[in-house]
Amino acid sequence: MELSALTHSELIFIDPPHRTPEAVIGEMSAALFRQGLINDKAMFIDSVLRRESEGPTALGESLAVPHGNAARLSRPHLASPCFASPSCGRVLRGTRRFSWYFCWRFPQKKQAVRICNY
């Protein structure tokens, strides 16, 4: 699957004003909702924050990949802000600064595995 099939310009944010992980997740979720890619913004935000509370989704190298669950979604998608200067986020031990966040959503685990294995 090509990246262009997962996102479009309304889901890419260059140096957004929001700096905390919660605010970034909220803005990405609002954009996903406006595009009709999630059907319940509050439920999606809750699922992303719940997943973050189980353990951070930081990958290192200034990259964070928060993700959540949404019912009745027809296709996978990606929303991403890119910061001119890094913002702070929680990692396994303490906090780290991030320049990129990617908010993934896949309708089914099987599809997520297939896409990630390309």
Structure description:
InterPro entries: PTrfase/Anion_transptr, PTS_EIIA_type-2_dom. This is PTS system 2-O-a-mannosyl-D-glycerate specific transporter subunit IIABC. The protein has 118 residues and is α/β, with parallel strands linked by helices. It contains three helices and six strands; from the N terminus they run βααβββββα. It has helices spanning 21-34, 41-54, 109-116; strands spanning 12-14, 58-60, 63-64, 77-90, 95-101, 103-105. Strands 1, 2, 3, 4, 5 and 6 form a six-stranded mixed beta sheet that branches. Strand 4 and strand 5 (95-101) form a beta hairpin. Helix 1 (21-34) packs antiparallel against helix 2. 25% of the residues are buried.
List the helices and strands and how they pair.
Elements (H helix, E strand, L loop, with lengths): L11 E3 L6 H14 L6 H14 L3 E3 L2 E2 L12 E14 L4 E7 L1 E3 L3 H8 L2
Parallel strand pairs: 1-4, 3-5
Antiparallel strand pairs: 2-3, 4-5, 4-6
By secondary-structure content and strand pairing, the structural class works out as alpha/beta
CATH homologous group name: Mannitol-specific EII, Chain A
What is the name of the CATH architecture?
3-Layer(aba) Sandwich
Secondary-structure element order, N to C: EHHEEEEEH
Helix content: 25-40%
Counting structural domains, the number is: 1
- Through-space gap between termini: 8 Å
| Mean pLDDT over all positions | 69
Query: Given this structure, which CATH class is correct?
Result: Alpha Beta
Organism: Citrobacter koseri (Citrobacter diversus)
Pfam family, one: PTS_EIIA_2
Protein name: PTS system 2-O-a-mannosyl-D-glycerate specific transporter subunit IIABC
Domain PTS EIIA type-2: 5-118
